Amino acid sequence: LPMAFRDVNARRHIGLQQLSSLALAGRTLLGPMKSCKFIVDESTNQSTLICSAVRLIESLDLSSAAGQLLNETIQAQNKEFKTGMSTLLFLIGAWSNAILECLQQNVPVSAIVSVMSEGLNSCCERVQCLQISIHDVNKELCSSSVRPDAFKSKTCQIGPDSLLNPQNFPYFQKDILAPEEVIPINSCSHQDDCNCNKCLVSPLAGFGSIASLVKPAGDKSTSVSSGSSVITSSCNKQKLTHSRYFSTLGKSHFSSQQGNFQGYLSGQSADACECYGLGHLAVTLSHGNQASMKLLQSIVAYQQERAEGSGSSQFNIAEIVTCCLLGLPESYSCVFPGLVTLVSPEQATVIKYFEDKPLRILLMDGDLTEQYRHLGFNRPCNVRTILEHPSLQEGRAGDLWLSSMLDILISFEVNLVLVKGNVCDNLMERCIANSILVIGSVTRDVLRAFGEVTSAQPVTYLTQVNAACVGSGAQVELWKACDGRAMDLGELVPVRIKVRGIPLLTAVLTTTVPSKMQLIEDRFWTLVYRLHHALNDEKVFLGGGAVELLCLSHIQMLAEQPLQPANKNAVKEFHNPWLAASATEYKSVVLQALASGWKQYLSVVLCNTAKAASVLEACTLVDHHLKKAADCGSPSAYILKEFRRGDLLRGGSGPFADHGDSLKVYDNVTAKTEAWRRALDLVLLVLQTDAEIITGPKRNQLLNSHVSSEFMFL
């Protein structure tokens, strides 16, 4: 009878079944070649395009307890890392199914929890050998056997005359304040040890984004396009195809007559291999996201150029903001120093009076409303202020406050106000009438950046303003597209606020497809945070499935080990010799269940990237590598060798299967391992919660609530 009860209990783990069903919707979001999904709002019939686990979870019905826990887990990963959510969601589903199978085999819950936790900890320790430091990544890129000759036929040939035309490079934008400055792309100091020269850009770039690495017509040196999908008028009409394994590194030997250029790492490191810099690290972390990679490379180059004087080359994510412009082609996406934001047409009329004029700027760290009080403000109880002599000239309540606030701005000759929070609509109207531009919903990092270069000091209330708080030197203009036209996108108008030397950069993201706007922004920030976490960790994992393959090999090796009697530590941990013996008895079964999660992960990635035509073919390929790794005697050595050759889990298909050389791909260390731990922690939490409900004091009542055929038979 107890065994029969256990069979019924296994079928009562509704929470695990719900996790499995919810996670199933995210299978196509795994890997570098994600399949996007359209999410339709039934109430409005509006649709949006998603390609991340976060957006998927936001669109699902998560009314159940398991759904709420799943949402909290995904949101926690997103809040901390902004990457790894798809892996987290998939492993939650895979391990939920694996545990349900263990329950069907009558494996005790205590054994599942103990062995799976122990197995994951062992894997995290084992894969440390596949970590590589950022310095070693640069050295590997420098000495890499990647040769772009294999892709020569797919390289666009652009002559010098085309290079001078900014129309051919929509990422390039001119900075009116400092036309002599440029953002160099993939530049490096001239070292004989490196197979690269200084990469030059047009001076019209003026802090513009990265463009394709090209060579002039007639130049016989090797050159590789950086992967822009935009076909220029002088380029061969052949669109490049990319995957995470496609090489974008190459030489650039063209010259320019436009001025002097300097690599952003010139003279910064004695190591010649440092010439690749963070821009090339961004390529290895892009996982096929070419458009975002170009923007990020441009940002990295600008930040490192600024940091040369201080000797620091650290990537600063706080100095990056985005502005989404709907209605323009994606080729218009670019990077600007300063702040690009959207304002109303009424505010845009004020800007026309400000163009090319230095403005006095005020920064407000709070809301610009009458009711706003700073955090921690103690409101006096039972105190009411009554005006004994109300002004007869004021026609409505609040006009006195509006007039006083406006008087303060006018008295200090403030032209531009950046507000962290909301702005009173009535005050906004009065400011527009007096040619004062007020922009709300500005982040604290933006305020800090403008404060550094304008000497403005943020205030909480306008009544705190004095002469020392007001900065100067800012300029405002209507944002212009790459063809020089100012854009009016309907209800909102893009404007640009700039100051000479400002560290703030705005990535302007554009598209003509409304449902794709959120997707483009998510992809950009995912890549930005990948680079951010890689620098914080100071190391990366080998990518392309190398880490998961080693985990799978390691777990299978542990599962094949002969059973050993429970040791004293295990007995002490469980406070029961039977539980310790149970964990030892079912160790192989549980470890195989844990391994199945990574095997499913690799199989789905292979299918999503078209490296395998079916799940069966993908599993066969994974088993083939596992066998070769086992025969090698050292799975980690085998995986490292195959990774360096570029043959790991590539199979015989794919657009670049014929080329032995490829650009290496890397993954974040902490984000990946935390995704594993969060996935297993959630699954085990739901498992134990379901077990408590079923085996608690009301077990019989719960089991009889829906009488099954098995229970009736008993």
Automatic annotation (TrEMBL):
This is Bardet-Biedl syndrome 12 protein. GO terms for molecular function: ATP binding. GO terms for biological process: chaperone-mediated protein complex assembly; photoreceptor cell maintenance. SUPFAM superfamilies: GroEL apical domain-like (SSF52029), GroEL equatorial domain-like (SSF48592). PANTHER family: BARDET-BIEDL SYNDROME 12 PROTEIN (PTHR46883:SF1). InterPro entries: BBS12, GroEL-like_apical_dom_sf, GROEL-like_equatorial_sf, TCP-1-like_intermed_sf.
